[in-house]
Amino acid sequence: MATKRKATARKSAKGAIKAVKGGGGAYRVAKTYKSPRAVSVKELPFQFSRADLEFIGVDHSGASYEARVFINNPNADQETPKTEASGYAGSFSVFGHGGCFGDVGHCDINQRRDEFDLRPSHPLEAIKKVVIATDAIKKAAAQSADITITVIPVVMSWTDKSDLEDVLKFDHINLVSYD
Amino acid sequence: MAGLTVRKNADDLPAEELQAIREAYRNAQQIMDNRGYNHFAGLHGIPNWWCWHHDHSQRSNVNAQLFLPWHRAYLLYFERAIRDQRPPNTEVGLPWWDWTSPRSHVTGVPEAFSNAGDRQPNPLFSARIVAPTANPPIDRMTRRSPRQPRELPTPADVTDVLNLTQFDDFSRQLEGIHDFIHGWTGGGLGDMGNVGTAAWDPIFWSHHCNIDRLWYLWQIRHGESNIPPNLLPMVLPPFSLTVRDVLNINALGYEYAVSLVRI
Question: How far is A141 from chain B (nearest CA, A)?
Fold first, then answer.
């Protein structure tokens, strides 16, 4: 049985934008995300076998990037090691469309659809990404710590039409636990 | 196994097989009609957009987890097109790129794909993109700027995914690794990092061959028909195959055996 906990996402304007050489290919760090509220461990069930962080409404219209998710490490950045000790919970990756290659309006998601419109939905409709974060969430719960989420987007690949500063866009995060 | 095409690790190809694959790719890249490399690369993103990612295709009004079966069908047709261009008296199968291997964690992209070529251009290193209907039109060679090999997924990362028992869960997590490899391999302005042009980079096929191989390994563990039943009759255009048709790779004419010992 799934128990859902929802944390409302808000893009964070915090975080420096840096271009960091990755040896054989530069990569860039865009604006980071810090959860607007902490999730109290009291909101989690006493026992669970799996805990997922569902990122709802992820934009994939631009650059391709890795989003590194950290629990209870608000100071995490692109140099933070992806280890348990640093609160690393996992990553999701976005294979992006690279920006808009059509004419004006081509990449606008048209919301005006009625029940007789049989055309496919817009290809840039937002997607869902799931990070299996069981170990990191259990560790935080065992420490009776409230849970904050920090997401560091590391841009890996882009086109000259890509916005490189504001790649990480999503509607909200669900923290979902399972028996 | 008689008659089956055996797909092999790109790092372990015998020299004569690698040469045959190069010639097949080179021949296909010189054909600009619907038998050629440019045609098949253009089915994925720009300009035809048949690909399935994240439960969605621009060609369908249905949301369905077809990422794995669609790409299996895509590779099948591409492999057939390449095999049609192979030199006489040779056998050619799509090689896979195991990005978790110790060698990949040192060299990154397999050597066969990362050498631009000495006396003549290496058709596994880059290919020409001809997409006159793209906006703006594209006519150039592919480009690639891979990141650090140590960032590639580990065997443990793949094992975690292979241990997932539900198809939707497995497919979504494997697609996540797939997404990472695209961005990693493209790097900067590389084509593998962009859905629209990724399929022109020759490494695309070997990357997806590994994805398909991992689905096959998962099927061995959890059942060949372990897939939501409602997906089975779904057609995988532009290929005349359904999901049910692509579940058994031997029935499609190929195999991923790491070794074969004849007794």
Answer: 22
Q: Does B60 touch chain A (CB under 8 A)?
A: yes
Q: Model confidence at A13, in pLDDT bands (50, 70, 90)?
A: very low
In this structure, is the dihedral angle defined by the CA atoms of residues A62, A66, A70 and A73, taken in order, positive or negative? Answer: negative
The CATH topology of domain A2-98+124-178 is: Jelly Rolls (2.60.120)
Nearest CA in chain B to A93: B180
Residue A46: per-residue pLDDT: 78
Q: What is the mean pLDDT of residues A3-16?
A: 35
Question: pLDDT tens, A81-117?
Answer: 999 999 999 999 999 999 887 778 888 886 666 777 7
Nearest Cα to A157, choosing from B184, B134, B71, B170? B184
Stretch B20-49: mean pLDDT, rounded? 95
- The answer to whether A81 contacts chain B (CB < 8 Å) is no
Global pTM reads 0.88
Establish if B208 touches chain A: CB-CB under 8 angstroms.
Answer: no
Note the pLDDT tens digit of each residue in B64-75.
999 999 999 999
The residue written with tokens 């569902």 in the block is A54
Indicate the pairing of strand A18-21 with strand A88-94.
unpaired
Yes or no, beta carbons of A27 and B187 under 8 Å apart: yes
Tokens for B149, please give them: 């090999």
What residue segments make up the domains of chain A, in order of their start?
A: 2-98+124-178
Q: How many CA atoms lie within 13 A of A7 on its CB side?
A: 25
Alpha carbons B24 and B6: distance in angstroms, whole number: 16
CA distance A129 to A132: 10
- Angle, vertex CA B262, rays to CA B261 and CA B263, nearest 5: 115
Question: Does B183 sit within 8 Å of A157, measured CB to CB?
Answer: yes
Whole-number pLDDT of residue A107: 85
- Give chain B's mean pLDDT: 94
Pairs of residues, one from chain A and one from chain B, whose beta carbons lie less than 8 Å apart: 123
Is the pLDDT at A131 greater than 70? The verdict is yes
- Which of A55, A156, A170 has the most B C-beta neighbours within 10 Å, making it the best mutation to test the interface with B? A156
Distance of alpha carbon A89 from alpha carbon A72, whole angstroms: 10
Question: For A164, which residue in chain B has the nearest alpha carbon?
Answer: B188
| B157–A contact, CB cutoff 8 A | no
pLDDT at A23 over 50: no
Stretch B44-73: mean pLDDT, rounded? 92
Q: Which domains does chain B have, with CATH numbers?
A: 5-255 (1.10.1280.10)
The residues pairing with A21 across neighbouring beta strands, listed in sequence order, are A26
